[in-house]
Automatic annotation (TrEMBL), chain A:
<keyword id="KW-0813">Transport</keyword>
<dbReference type="Pfam" id="PF01012">
    <property type="entry name" value="ETF"/>
</dbReference>
<dbReference type="InterPro" id="IPR012255">
    <property type="entry name" value="ETF_b"/>
</dbReference>
<comment type="similarity">
    <text>Belongs to the ETF beta-subunit/FixA family.</text>
</comment>
<dbReference type="InterPro" id="IPR033948">
    <property type="entry name" value="ETF_beta_N"/>
</dbReference>
<dbReference type="GO" id="GO:0009055">
    <property type="term" value="F:electron transfer activity"/>
</dbReference>
<keyword id="KW-0249">Electron transport</keyword>
<dbReference type="InterPro" id="IPR000049">
    <property type="entry name" value="ET-Flavoprotein_bsu_CS"/>
</dbReference>
<dbReference type="InterPro" id="IPR014730">
    <property type="entry name" value="ETF_a/b_N"/>
</dbReference>
From TrEMBL, chain B:
<feature type="binding site">
    <location>
        <begin position="271"/>
        <end position="272"/>
    </location>
    <ligand>
        <name>FAD</name>
    </ligand>
</feature>
<comment type="similarity">
    <text>Belongs to the ETF alpha-subunit/FixB family.</text>
</comment>
<dbReference type="InterPro" id="IPR018206">
    <property type="entry name" value="ETF_asu_C_CS"/>
</dbReference>
<protein>
    <submittedName>
        <fullName>Electron transfer flavoprotein subunit alpha/FixB family protein</fullName>
    </submittedName>
</protein>
<dbReference type="InterPro" id="IPR014729">
    <property type="entry name" value="Rossmann-like_a/b/a_fold"/>
</dbReference>
<dbReference type="InterPro" id="IPR014730">
    <property type="entry name" value="ETF_a/b_N"/>
</dbReference>
<dbReference type="InterPro" id="IPR029035">
    <property type="entry name" value="DHS-like_NAD/FAD-binding_dom"/>
</dbReference>
<keyword id="KW-0249">Electron transport</keyword>
<feature type="binding site">
    <location>
        <position position="323"/>
    </location>
    <ligand>
        <name>FAD</name>
    </ligand>
</feature>
C-alpha cells in the first residue's frame, strides 16, 4: 500500500504578533512548525503502514525552508519525501494549491501507484479545510472528510471503511480506493521519533521538485494567476468603544456577587426574565 | 505559499476589470439549505437573512437550494426558507440524497449551478457545508472563501466582499473573487444573526431534474451513530453560557462552573487550554478553532480574553468577566467585570443567583 500525506509548514501562530501601529504581521523569529492538524494525518498513515506494510510518502508545497518540516516527518518514520518548491507557486489560493498538489501526487503515482492520500482537517494559517477536498476532486479520489477512525482497509477488494464526523453523529462509510482522507484532530497522538530515525532524518535526501518535475505545464493554473480569490484588504478588528463596567470593587466576593446580580436584574429586565425561565 | 487568505495580493489594479460577458450572465444569490435527517441546520436561516440583504442591494432574487431524500422533506424546508426571505427554492428530491454523501450532493449542486448560474453561493461552515463547498468550488473551478464573518457588496463592481479572520484571528482580511463565478463563501453557525421569520411569506418551488442511480454511487453509509443527547453540547445555540479558563487552576475547580451553570440552566463552555487539558470535552471549546456562540449571557471566569477566544463569543448580548488581573484583555470588551479570585467569586455568584431566583419565583 502506498500512502501520500500532505503536510504544510506554518508559522507557529501562537507566537505571531501584530505590530500595534502598522498592523502588519511581525514574523521575525516566529518558529515554523508542521501544521498541528497534519500530525494526526501523518500518525494515522504510519499506523496503517505498521498494520499493513507499504510505504508512506510525505509531500509539502512551500519555500525551500519547508524542507525542515519534511525532515521532521522522516524522524517519525516515513519512507520518502517531496518538497514541491518553485517561485511560480507564490500567491496560490486553495484552488491553485490543490491543483499543484494534485499534479504532484499524479506524478508520485507514476513511480508507485497511490492508494490513499491523507491531509489534515485544516491549516492554522489558511484555515480553510478546502485543499483536501480540492485534491480529491481533481484526482477523482473518493473523499472522506473529518475521519475519526479507520475500521478496515481491504486491498484485495480495493475498499476502505471509516468513521467520519457528520452533523449530529458519526457516519460509518464504506467506499472504494483510491481515496482521500482528511483526518479529524485529537484522534491519535504523533509518535516519538526513534533514535535511529532521528539519525536517518539528519542525513535524509529530501527530493525537491520544481513545477516541471511535478508535471505542471499550465502556469495559468498555479500561483497568483491560477487563484480566483485575491485579498483586497487586511485590517485590524475595531476595538470596542466601551470597556467593562467594573462592579463592586473593594467589596469581598459575596458583596461583589450581590452587586452584580442587582445590576444585572436592574439593567437587563428581559435577561432577568430569561434567567428566571431557564432556571426552572 | 497557499496563503492568499493571509498575504495581500498585488492585484489591486485588477479590481475594476470588466467582468467577462459569459460571467456577467451569472445572476442571483443562492443559499444552500442544509438538511440532515429531516432537520434543517439553523445556519441556513442565518444565511438566508444575510443573503436577503445582499439580494436587495443587488436587486436580484434570493434562492434557497434544498436537496433531500423526499418530496415532503424538501417542500417543508422550502416553505420555511420562504419565511426567512427566499423568493424561490430550487429543489431536488431523490432517495440518493437522503443521507449526506459527498458524491451525489456535489453532483446535484454543481448541476444546478451550471444550469441556473447564480452569482453568489453561500453555505454554512459546518462539517457538511465545508465538505460540500470545497468539492463544489473545485469542480466548478471557482473561488471559495471560508468562515466569513462579514459579507458585503462592492459598490464599484457588484462583487462579493467576503471578510474573514486571518493570522489566528489577530487580523481580518477582505477577499474578492474576481473573474470567476459563482463567488462562493461559507459562514459559521451563529456568526450572522437569526432573521425574524415572516410566517405568511411564500415563494415559488422549482423542481429540478436529477439523474443519479444508487448503483452508480460508490460510497455507502453502513451505519449512522447519533450523538447521545446529553453528550452533545448544544453550545452554539445556548442562551446562557458559563465558561471557564486556565485561571481556574485545575480540573477539579471546574466543578464551580458546573454549579453556577446548573443554577442558571446554562450550558458549559471553556477556552482552548481547558479543552486541551481535558477538563471539559473538546466540543465545548469556544473560539476561533472551537464554536461561535451568541448567547444572551456569557459568564467567563479565569479567561484572559485572547483574540481567538474573543472572536467566538463577543457577539453575546451581555458578557460578565471574572478575572484577578484588572488588566486582562477580557475587560476591554466585557459588559461587566469582577476583579478578583474566581475560585471565591464563583461560589458567591452561584449563591447570589440561587437566592435571587428563588425570591423572584416566590414573588411571582
Ligand atoms: C490558531 C489558534 C487558534 C486558537 N483557538 C482558540 C479557541 O478556539 N478558543 C480559545 O479559547 N483559545 C484559542 N486559542 C488560544 C488562545 O490564543 C489563548 O491562548 C487561550 O484562549 C487562553 O486561554 P485562557 O484565557 O483560559 O488562559 P490564559 O491566557 O492562561 O488566561 C488565564 C486567565 O485567568 C486569570 N486568572 C488566573 N488565576 C485566576 C483566578 N484565581 N481567578 C480569576 N482569574 C484568574 C489570569 O489573569 C488570566 O487572564 C487559539 C490559539 C491559536 C494560535
Ligand atoms: N502547501 C501545502 N502543502 C502540502 N499540503 C497542504 C498545503 N496546504 C494545505 N495542505 C493540506 O491541506 C490541508 C487543508 O489545508 P487548508 O485548506 O489550508 O485548511 C492541510 O491540513 C494540509 O494537509
Amino acid at each position: 500500500m502506498h500512502i501520500v500525506v500532505c503536510i504544510k509548514q506554518v508559522p507557529d501562530s501562537a507566537q505571531i504578533r501584530v505590530h500595534p501601529v502598522t498592523n502588519t504581521i511581525m514574523r521575525q523569529g516566529v518558529p515554523a512548525i508542521i501544521n498541528p492538524f497534519d500530525l494526526f494525518a501523518l500518525e494515522e498513515a504510519l499506523r496503517l503502514k505498521d498494520r499493513m506494510g507499504g510505504r508512506v510518502t510525505v509531500l509539502t508545497m512551500g519555500p525551500p525552508q519547508a524542507e525542515d518540516a519534511l525532515r521532521k516527518a522522516v524522524s517519525f518514520g516515513v519512507d520518502d519525501t517531496i518538497l514541491l518548491t518553485d517561485r511560480a507557486f507564490a500567491g496560490a489560493d486553495t484552488l491553485a494549491t490543490s491543483y499543484a498538489l494534485a499534479q504532484t501526487i499524479r506524478k508520485i503515482g507514476e513511480e508507485h501507484p497511490v492508494d490513499l492520500v491523507f491531509t489534515g482537517k485544516q491549516t492554522i494559517d489558511g484555515d480553510t479545510a478546502q485543499v483536501g477536498p480540492g485534491i480529491a476532486k481533481r484526482l477523482g479520489l473518493q473523499l472522506l472528510t473529518y475521519v475519526s477512525g479507520i475500521d478496515a482497509v481491504d486491498l484485495q477488494n480495493r475498499e476502505i471503511t471509516v468513521r467520519r464526523r457528520a452533523e449530529g453523529g458519526v457516519q460509518v462509510i464504506r467506499t472504494r480506493l483510491p481515496a482521500l482522507i482528511t483526518m479529524l484532530e485529537g484522534t491519535n497522538q504523533i509518535r516519538y521519533a526513534s533514535m535511529d530515525d532521528m539519525f536517518r532524518a539528519a542525513r535524509f535526501e529530501v527530493r525537491k521538485w520544481n513545477k516541471d518535475m511535478a508535471g505542471i505545464e499550465d502556469v495559468g493554473k498555479i500561483g497568483l494567476k491560477g487563484s480566483p480569490t485575491v485579498v483586497s484588504k487586511v485590517f485590524a478588528p475595531k476595538p470596542k468603544a466601551v470597556k467593562a463596567q467594573i462592579i463592586g470593587s473593594g467589596l469581598d466576593s459575596q458583596g461583589m456577587a450581590a452587586a452584580l446580580v442587582d445590576t444585572l436584574f436592574a439593567q437587563h429586565p428581559r435577561l432577568g426574565k430569561e434567567l428566571q425561565h431557564a432556571s426552572h | 505559499m497557499s496563503e492568499n487568505n493571509a498575504a495581500p495580493a498585488k492585484a489591486k489594479g485588477k479590481k475594476r476589470l470588466e467582468l467577462d460577458p459569459r460571467l456577467a450572465a451569472y445572476q442571483g444569490i443562492w443559499v444552500f439549505v442544509e438538511m440532515e435527517r429531516g432537520r434543517v441546520h439553523p445556519v441556513s436561516w442565518e444565511l438566508l437573512g444575510e443573503g436577503r440583504k445582499l439580494a436587495d442591494i443587488l436587486g436580484v432574487e434570493l434562492a434557497a437550494v434544498v436537496l433531500g431524500g423526499s418530496e415532503e422533506a424538501v417542500e417543508a424546508a422550502s416553505a420555511e426558507a420562504f419565511t426567512y426571505g427566499a423568493d424561490l427554492a430550487h429543489v431536488v428530491a431523490d432517495p440518493v440524497l437522503t443521507e449526506y454523501r459527498n458524491e451525489p450532493y456535489t453532483k446535484a449542486m454543481t448541476d444546478l449551478v451550471n444550469r441556473h448560474q447564480p452569482e453568489i453561493l453561500l453555505l454554512g461552515a459546518t462539517t457538511l457545508g465545508r465538505d460540500l463547498a470545497g468539492s463544489v468550488a473545485t469542480t466548478l473551478q471557482t473561488g471559495l472563501t471560508a468562515d466569513c464573518t462579514e459579507l458585503a457588496i462592492d459598490p464599484d463592481n457588484r462583487g462579493l466582499l467576503a471578510t474573514r479572520p486571518t493570522f489566528g484571528g489577530s487580523l481580518l482580511c477582505t477577499i474578492q473573487t474576481l473573474n470567476y463565478r459563482p463567488q462562493m463563501a461559507t459562514v459559521r453557525p451563529r456568526v450572522m444573526a437569526m432573521p425574524e421569520a415572516d410566517p405568511v411569506r411564500v415563494g415559488r418551488i422549482v423542481r429540478e431534474a436529477f439523474d443519479l442511480s444508487e448503483e452508480s454511487i460508490i460510497a455507502k453509509v453502513l451505519e449512522f451513530i447519533p450523538d447521545e443527547a446529553q453528550e452533545q453540547a448544544q453550545l452554539a445555540y445556548a442562551d446562557i453560557i458559563v465558561a471557564g479558563g486556565r485561571g481556574l487552576g485545575k480540573a477539579e475547580n471546574f466543578q464551580l462552573i458546573w454549579d453556577l451553570a446548573a443554577v442558571l440552566g446554562a450550558e458549559v463552555g471553556g477556552s482552548r487550554p481547558v479543552t486541551h487539558a481535558g477538563w471539559i470535552s473538546a466540543d465545548r471549546q469556544v473560539g476561533q478553532s472551537g464554536k461561535t456562540v451568541r448567547p444572551k449571557l456569557y459568564i467567563a471566569a479565569g479567561i484572559s480574553g485572547a483574540i481567538q477566544h474573543r472572536v467566538g463569543m463577543e457577539a453575546s448580548d451581555v458578557i460578565i468577566a471574572i478575572n484577578n488581573d484588572p488588566n486582562a484583555p477580557i475587560f476591554e470588551f466585557a459588559t461587566y467585570g469582577l476583579v478578583g479570585d474566581a475560585l471565591r467569586i464563583l461560589p458567591a455568584l452561584t449563591e447570589a443567583f440561587r437566592s435571587r431566583l428563588a425570591v423572584n419565583r416566590l414573588a411571582s
